Sequence to fold (153 residues):
Amino acid sequence: MKRAIENRLGFVIGDIARRYGVIYDQRAKQEIELTRAQCRLLVYMTAYGEMRQTDLATLADVTPMTVARMIDRMEAAGWVKRQADPADRRALLVSMTDKADDRLDAALKLGDDLTARITEGFSSEEVATLLSMLKRVRANLAACGEVDVSEEG
Fold:
């Protein structure tokens, strides 16, 4: 039996996020030599500063092993660097390099361009209202106690 899904909020939000991610990832790989996932890590680092890999994994909502592999590749390419955490010698702190900082503006611009395209035909007030409403949805999700959702991102 067919079921209507176009008016189900969770489906629509998930579909938008998936499609946005695919398009962003394609463009990011071509234009700035980073993946969407790598761009997200850089955005978290620029918002929160140097941090432990485990904290980065929590923010990105991926396993610590996944972040470790991503950081391995990013470090080899010169995007990030690791150093021992002075507070815990077992932990590593990850920070962006100047190379990544220079490329971050391009990553953010790519997101801005894609946002402009997907909100084409919307007034600036409509875009502000949409963003405000989505932030409220995010806050309500955080209040459910299932996930820790930060204000950034």
About this structure: Residues 7 and 101 are 40 Å apart (CA to CA). The radius of gyration is 18 Å. The helical segments are 9-31, 36-48, 53-60, 64-76, 98-118, 124-143. Residues 147-153 have pLDDT under 50 and may be disordered.
